[in-house]
Amino acid sequence: MHSILSFFTRNKTRLKHTAQYNLIHAIVKSCLILSVLFSLHIICMVHYEELSLGDATWLTFTTATTVGYGDISAASTEGRLATILLLYLGGIFIFAKVVGDYFDYRLEIRDKKCKGLWNWDMHNHIVILNTPAHAGERYLERLVNQFKLSEKYTDTPIYLLTRHFPQGLPHFITELGNVVHYHGNASNSNDLAKACVNKASEIIVLAKNEDDESSDGRTFDILHRLNDLKVNATILVECVEDYNRERLQNAGANRVIRPMRAYPEMIVRAFVTPGSELIIENMFNSDNDEYRRYDVKINHLAWSEVVTRLISHNMGIAVAYIDKNTQQLVYNPPANTMQDLQALITISKDNSQFSNDDIKTLVSKES
Prior knowledge:
Blueprint: H1 2-10, H2 12-15, H3 19-48, H4 53-64, H5 77-114, E1 126-129, H6 136-149, E2 158-162, H7 171-174, E3 179-183, H8 189-194, E4 202-205, H9 214-228, E5 234-238, H10 245-250, E6 255-257, H11 265-272, H12 276-282, E7 289-294, E8 298-302, H13 303-312, E9 317-323, E10 329-331, E11 338-349, H14 356-364
Parallel strand pairs: 1-2, 1-4, 2-3, 4-5, 5-6
Antiparallel strand pairs: 7-11, 8-11, 9-10, 9-11
């Protein structure tokens, strides 16, 4: 009872004029009245029925809960009158009201948790801010699933802060397990605090619209608010325009990547293997490096020898090949196995131009 009153006193201002406040107030008030009625009935049983304190308490509770074992009962007129007035007309009704209010309170809390209105107390968790404008629900599902598939983050709680899902997270997200959300605005410092960003281990700021450069301005604002809250987590942000990368890094972002809605794995890789996200991102543009295919036939040459010859002549890095027998792409094959190649795929600088004959001559000559 003391703990309930302490909770009620500490949170009175925050809960005032809410359904939760009213339910707690009703439960506390009813419990106090019930305590008085039970105490009076116990005193009456001890005085009028000459019962021991233990027997009087037993009789009071079995009567109030309508169990009524019948092993002890009031025999005197005064004792029976006290039972009628204190328990039958008061105690049983109030006890039922307490139980009903308690279940209403639990339903109220459950409803708040479902609708993102509950303040979860988390630490060492992942916070995901914002929801993509297009197919955001499915993207979050895949992103959360990628974290769950990673051994490092299998059991890590994930906290979503978004204005989406006012009626609750979709079932295909909640069924992934250990995922909750708060219905709020990532540009609001109070909402960020409610997502426990200062206790998080990783924070992800998703671009609201991957096609709108103004999303970078929103991300910049969120970074400053995180800085004001003295966040120590590793922060990854999505950047729409490359010229904003440095600006976002100076604002506190530890990782900056392009929004790539088809590949949420990039975000997980950025945390599990920092730097690998840049390699993956580089595959989708031709700013510095370019993938090339050379249709050359190479027979019975170790893959390590193919790679070594290309690197030693500054002709790029061999990353994969087309098997001559199966016509299948083989990526990152064992180093010392003998290969029969139909075609070779390399990555090299944009200004490095080599013909099929150049590659064929290099890999065909004796080592």
